[in-house]
Design a protein that fits this description.
The chain is mainly α. The protein is built from five helices and no strands. The protein has a domain of 69 residues. The longest helix is centred in the N-terminal third of the chain and has 51 residues.
Length: 181
């Protein structure tokens, strides 16, 4: 702690016992413990406030760096490859230049240029894609109510089955006693 070993604590205890006396020693030790605890709590509170101030300073530095990075990121302009590809496809479908069309006969009906928005995934059919020799899986049939309906169960008899109980034996006929004695 402060470089004080057990032997020094024993010497301090013996001197306190002699100087204070055995009668007053417990109250003095209780008071000393109270003040030591109060000092420790104050030190821990100060240390916690100091650590919190350091964290806030670090957070301010991190926020500043984040703002710098986000400012740099907004300055960067990315070329959209999909937009460039759509533009190339649209330009391929547009009317050919006049020099190229002069050599070819004029079409019967005027052609309209195709915009990039009109070229969607559905517009690019299978003919435009390279053919691969892999068969497509069979389509799955749609789900119907018969697929999710519970199976029909036979109607239950509301009464439980009667057990096979033999009929009670018949009582022997009563014989009339006619006699009188």
């Amino acid at each position: 702690m402060f470089g004080i070993g057990w032997s020094e604590f024993v010497v301090i205890g013996v001197v306190a016992l002699i100087a204070i006396g055995p009668k007053e020693l417990p109250t003095v030790l209780r008071t000393v413990g109270f003040w030591v605890g109060k000092i420790r709590r104050m030190a821990n509170e100060f240390q916690g406030q100091f650590q919190e101030a350091l964290r806030e300073a670090e957070m301010a530095d991190v926020r500043k760096e984040l703002e710098e990075i986000s400012a740099q990121a907004t300055d960067i302009k990315f070329d959209d490859p999909v937009a460039a590809m759509n533009k190339d496809i649209a330009s391929a479908f547009e009317d050919k230049p006049a020099a190229a069309t002069a050599a070819e006969p004029a079409p019967a009906a005027p052609t309209a240029s195709v915009s990039a928005e009109a070229l969607s995934h559905e517009a690019l059919s299978q003919e435009a894609l390279p053919q691969i020799g892999v068969p497509l899986p069979e389509p799955v049939s749609p789900v119907t109510s018969a697929d999710v309906a519970p199976p029909a169960q036979p109607a239950k008899n509301p009464l439980p089955p009667e057990p096979d109980v033999p009929a009670p034996p018949e009582a022997p006929p009563k014989v009339a006693s006619g006699g009188g004695s």
